[in-house]
Amino acid sequence: MFSETVKSLRLQKRLTLRDFCDQAGLDPSNWSKVERGINPPPGDVGVLESLATFFGLTGAEKLAFMDQAALQRGELPPDVADHVLLQKALPAFFRAARGHELTEAEMTNLAEDIRKLHARDHK
Amino acid sequence: MFSETVKSLRLQKRLTLRDFCDQAGLDPSNWSKVERGINPPPGDVGVLESLATFFGLTGAEKLAFMDQAALQRGELPPDVADHVLLQKALPAFFRAARGHELTEAEMTNLAEDIRKLHARDHK
DNA sequence: TTGTTTGTGGTAGAATATTACCACACTTGT
DNA sequence: ACAAGTGTGGTAATATTCTACCACAAACAA
Q: Across the interface, which of B63, B78, B88 has its CB nearest the CB of A104?
């Protein structure tokens, strides 16, 4: 997820791994492993933000980027982690989905339904 | 969440903190902080499982217990963490809820709606 | 071949996070 | 007052995670 994303973003900029790391202030060896999912994404939010800036990500794109990093680390995004009410909904969400074999399309639909539900509840 | 849960479970068994820790093989000082949310819940799954067993939790109760521990640590439950398809839905879920002030009741409804949606999609 | 550039593996060191130890204050009971 | 039991604060020790360094192999070029 995060690994594929950062690699593809780097390649879009036509940068070699070393050049990219030079410009972004990262260690090439470590980053090579990050891009392959061997090492975890950086945990430091500052590093992630500078990466997002480097790639020109803003708004929703940037948020998704940060979320991907957290999720690949097996963590909750920081703003979710201290969103008390949202956290209360998460166990129910896990319960609903756990143990089911869902196709990717079904999952996408479910996610979209959630969004719509939310919009309806708050119109 | 986890902190309140374990404290209330211990009190239900009418155990002092020290007695409980003796029986469960935990350090009283650390556990005191865990019950107050100062120290994080144990990260070791084995420890959590033996706690669940000690409290007589099984099935859904046990899962919820494990989820609470992970969430209070700001982590995803391990089985969720490597549930690829579920992970794909999470960013959408975060996006849907982020930045909104939801009442607890609304959150509960949302969670319930998710459950129903899921059931419908798979009937 | 020789030199460069690319990505990668292994691992030591640093940085963090977790746990355990010890001493203390506060109660309660004798 | 004393003793025993309760929970807690501070911090040292430990364990874990993360990062950076170095050397290497493959591909490519001169």
A: B88
